[in-house]
Amino acid sequence: MGYYMRFLTTDKVVRGIPFLNRELQKRNPKWELEFVANAKRPSALLKYGSELYGEFEVNLPGDGLFTEEIEELGDFISHLEKRDAVEKVLKDATAIYALRVLWQGRDSEATLDTLQVFWEVLFSLHSGLLQADDDGYYDAEKRVLAVP
């Protein structure tokens, strides 16, 4: 299964993997989104130097997974109070940038700290929220909804 983090954007313009890779490398040239050919959806391996940090995928409306993911994320928060802002993003989402985090024997907190720059790049390019499994939803500044 794995640990997933998803950036849900509501922007009309969705950036592709080559563009994201260039922006990420501007922050630090050790980062790389290595494109995966022949995948069902736009996909890449997220690497920092020689270390693999995750499997990245862009989910778009009509791709067979986008609607299912949005519905599932909505179901997970349907019982929570103060979920309106998250529900609005789910309703208006135009893409999901999904990352399956790979620990590779690393400490989970250290891995998540290292990945912070990746999310900062997405927040600098898009409006939206970051969702972290078994944790909650974040804007660029703070957690906006805890999901126990």
Describe the structure in your own words.
It is a single chain. Strand 3 and strand 4 (51-59) form a beta hairpin. With 148 residues, this protein is of the alpha+beta class. The longest helix is centred in the last third of the chain and has 18 residues, at 108-125. The chain has 4 helices and 8 strands. Helix 1 crosses helix 4 (108-125). It has an 8-stranded antiparallel sheet, sandwiched between helices. It has helices spanning 17-27, 66-77, 84-92, 108-125; strands at 3-9, 31-35, 43-48, 51-59, 95-101, 128-132, 136-138, 143-146. Helix content is 34%, strand content 31%.
Key features of this structure:
148 residues, 4 helices, 8 strands, 31% strand
Q: Could you tell me the mean pLDDT?
A: 96
The end-to-end distance, rounded to whole angstroms, is: 19 Å
Largest sheet: 8 strands, antiparallel
Q: Structural class of the helices, strands and pairings?
A: alpha+beta
The secondary-structure element order is EHEEEHHEHEEE
* Total tally of structural domains: 1
List unreliable stretches of 5+ residues. none
Got a strand count?
8
Spatial extent as radius of gyration: 15 Å
Q: What percentage of the residues does DSSP assign to strands (E)? A: 25-35%
Number of helices: 4
Oligomerization status of the protein chains:
single chain
Shape by Cα distribution? globular
Question: Percentage of helical residues?
Answer: 25-40%
